[in-house]
Every structure is written in structure tokens, then in C-alpha cells.
Design goal:
By secondary structure, this protein is mainly β. It has helices spanning about 1-10, 25-30, and strands spanning about 15, 35-50, 55-65, 105-110, 115-120, 150, 155-160. The longest helix has 8 residues, at about 1-10.
């Protein structure tokens, strides 16, 4: 009875940390040498029930790792990292070699339906940094705001303030 009383007076959570998995294939995640990729390290989700429209905001924190060429990987203090014309170890918007965009596949699943499942340009979703997107050196995973991060291109809107996600 006391637990029920306590639960009824506590405000609902407006932000949570979510368990997540890297959706890349295992052969890419564990490739040797490591293929160029964005490595997610943390995901934050917040819901705004006080303002219309009610939005579910998702932020993915991580870092860039790996290399897409046979060139040697530059040292952390190498000036190539600040040169936008040097793309070694960086995620580019449009690959010159294959004429394809770096793509972000976003899929939201809520209970028994999928309200959003589309591809978009990764570089248009990046907030911390810009393409060509290189790694953040000496960043601490326990301070996610120091890492690279992006928002999926579509935020979920709902008229209800109580939803469940799987």
C-alpha cells in the first residue's frame, strides 16, 4: 500500500537512458583493420509532455573510429584532423570513390507498429561536429556531450503522454 502511495505522488520521468546496440554487422564492428564507422556509446531519450506537440527526442552519442583507405592513420595531434580537405579516418558526406552518401538508417518501433523507418544523410543529422567528421580524441564516454552526437532526422510526435517502446 505504501509503495502504491509513493508511486502515485512521484512525477513521471521526462528523460531516460536506454540500453541500445550497434546495428552494424558484426563483421564491420570487429573488422581488422577497423572499418570507418560511427561507434555509438550512449543514447539519451527525453519526452516533453508540457508543450504541444509532445515530442520524443532521441540523441545518439559516440565517436568516429577506423579507416576507409590504405593510408596510415594520423596521430591525434596531426594537422590532418583539422583540415577539411583531408578525409583519412573521417566520415564524409558524399564518397568520391563510389558516389554514395554516408547514410543513417532510422527505425522507431513503438509497441506493435513502426511509425518511422527511413534512410537519410548521416551528415545532416550530426550536431557535434561536421562532415568530414573525424574522431574526438581524449573524450570521456562518461561525459557524452564531449563526444560526437546526432539526432535522428525525425522526432516522434504523439498526442498521448503515455507510450511504451520496445
Amino acid at each position: 500500500m505504501l509503495a502504491l502511495l509513493l508511486i502515485s505522488v512521484l512525477p513521471p520521468a521526462s528523460a531516460v537512458l536506454v540500453n541500445f546496440d550497434n546495428c552494424l554487422e558484426e563483421s564491420i564492428i570487429h573488422s581488422v583493420p577497423l572499418q570507418l564507422q560511427f561507434v555509438p556509446m550512449d543514447v539519451a531519450v527525453s519526452f516533453d509532455p508540457d508543450h504541444d506537440p509532445h515530442t520524443l527526442n532521441i540523441t545518439v552519442y559516440g565517436n568516429v573510429s577506423g579507416i576507409a583507405t590504405q593510408q596510415p592513420y594520423p596521430a591525434p595531434d596531426d594537422p590532418q584532423w583539422t583540415n577539411p580537405n583531408s578525409t583519412v579516418g573521417k566520415i564524409v558526406d558524399l564518397s568520391v570513390s563510389n558516389n554514395k552518401y554516408s547514410t543513417l538508417f532510422t527505425k522507431f518501433s513503438v509497441l506493435s507498429f513502426t511509425p518511422y523507418n527511413e534512410a537519410s544523410r548521416f551528415c545532416e543529422s550530426v550536431v557535434q561536429g561536421e562532415c568530414p567528421l573525424g574522431p574526438v580524441f581524449y573524450a570521456n564516454a562518461y561525459v557524452p556531450r564531449k563526444l560526437r552526437f546526432f539526432f535522428p532526422p525525425k522526432q516522434l510526435l504523439t498526442l498521448q503522454t503515455n507510450i511504451g517502446a520496445t
